[in-house]
Amino acid sequence: MKFKGIHHVSALTAKAPENFDFYTKVLGLRLVKKTVNQDDPSVYHLFYGDEKGNPGTELTFFEIPMLAQNHEGTNSISATSLRVPNDQALVYWKQHFEELNVKHEEITERAGRSTLAFKDFEEQRLILVSDENNEGVQGGVPWEKGPIPKEYGIIGLGPVKLTVQYAKSTVGVLTEMMGFRKKGKYPSPVTGQPDILVFETGEGGTGAEIHVEERMDLPPERPGRGSVHHVAFRVENEKELREWISRINEAGLSNSGFVDRFYFRSLYFREPNGILFELATDGPGFATDEDINHLGESLALPPFLEPKREQIETKLKPLNTKVQ
Predict the structure, then answer these.
(1) What are the structural domains, with CATH classification, of the chain?
(2) Residue ranges of the chain with pLDDT lower than 50?
(3) Is 287 in contact with 32 (CB distance < 8 Å)?
């Protein structure tokens, strides 16, 4: 069994309206689902992606109002990459960020690809990565109604970076249990630190990589707004997910067991440094309960929460997500 790549990344925000504005109006992603945290229905869960919210393109946010600022450190998902079609797109994005006063670095090479690191309004750590020479997992299709020219639009999730105190145990789970293979390494931007290790799964390429950074000089991260909650990996279907559950149980890792998220089926577990991993099926998808042309415009609830809609809506601040 091999994962098909990165499925989604879920992060934390304290301000859903500003989050919606940044990810749709600045980055040009489509809000493909406005729903709630199924484990705490009093807060929003927003899903952004390509035109259909295809697996491998989804960046999601749990809103936790009044959440304190993240304090960066180890045992964390320390950077989320977003794929763009080519190197020229990075030139466009650098100018775009300069015009909108978005914090960003210079275009630089990471793991043999051109990249552009930047942060959102809550210091979320993001990296645009060029697909110019990608030969692995295909990207998605940018949302044509977004503000970004389609030829430069974001086409999915790229490599996810894990920063840990002890790389050996994390690498062991990735390679020995999860089937990742070592692809290479590249220098740390921090003087005196070990190289960052690159691992890939499935077809490989930009949409199927995990980068592992060992930093014994940092304290553990204190999560808050601007931090990442978990990363999910793509599983073909429910049958294969249940096979993974058996494998994880045999490995003795504590886990959630099978979880039905309605839009996909899942399993959660923590790797040895405490980072939360999810395995998620490619389907059924976000058009299950909404017309594809109107995704994310109204509050969507899975069937088991639908009877509580009135109660849930009274606790949520209205969030206008209709396309203008």
Answers:
(1) 6-315 (3.10.180.10)
(2) none
(3) no
